[in-house]
Write a structure and sequence with these properties.
2 helices, mainly beta, single chain, about 5% helix
Length: about 180
């Protein structure tokens, strides 16, 4: 249905934008493992959207697939649960430091480095960029997350968020190991 606005422009209803919320890019987004043009059987109804068909996988390592990944409608080819990314290598734990990028966050890992001359430790940290699947919509700065190593997804991203470990609203800029 076409609706007139106050400015005189004619546009589609907002229903269409809500219905196709996973289509935000110029190219049509779909899961490569799902065939959307299934032929109709006589006497059965055909879904107009491909929402009834969704491909998910178990990443292993004792990590459960989130409910949002199974029941959601998002399309993300870099998601470890619904995309073409396998988790191998290291599993790291850190706190969310920055969430200003699209589907990417920075985690901060604090550690102690031993100085032999003074027989003491000094505080150090590393920042790691990690891809965030749309299945983790409730992440905030300061949350503790588990990330797994995968193939390079971009220039700086080599990890993928696998699990939200704990939530906390305190400032995590400080060194929080002890």
């Amino acid at each position: 249905a076409v609706v007139s606005t106050q400015s005189g422009h004619y546009g589609r209803e907002s229903n269409l934008s809500q219905e196709m919320s996973e289509q935000t890019e110029k190219a049509f987004q779909k899961q490569p493992a799902v065939f959307l043009n299934k032929k109709r059987q006589i006497g059965t109804k055909v879904s107009k959207t491909g929402k009834d068909v969704r491909w998910t996988k178990n990443v292993g390592l004792g990590i459960k697939t989130p409910r949002e990944a199974i029941e959601g409608t998002y399309i993300d080819k870099k998601c470890p649960f619904t995309g073409n990314v396998s988790i191998r290598g290291r599993l790291l734990r850190g706190t969310v430091h920055n969430m200003k990028m699209k589907r990417t966050l920075t985690i901060r890992r604090d550690y102690l480095h031993y100085i032999k001359k003074y027989n003491r430790f000094e505080k150090r940290h590393k920042n790691i960029s990690a891809h965030v699947s749309p299945a983790f919509l409730d992440l905030k700065k300061g949350d503790s997350v588990l990330v797994g190593q995968c193939r390079p997804l971009s220039k700086t991203v080599r990890f993928n968020v696998l699990k939200l470990i704990s939530t906390s609203g305190i400032d995590k800029k400080k060194f929080s190991k002890f």
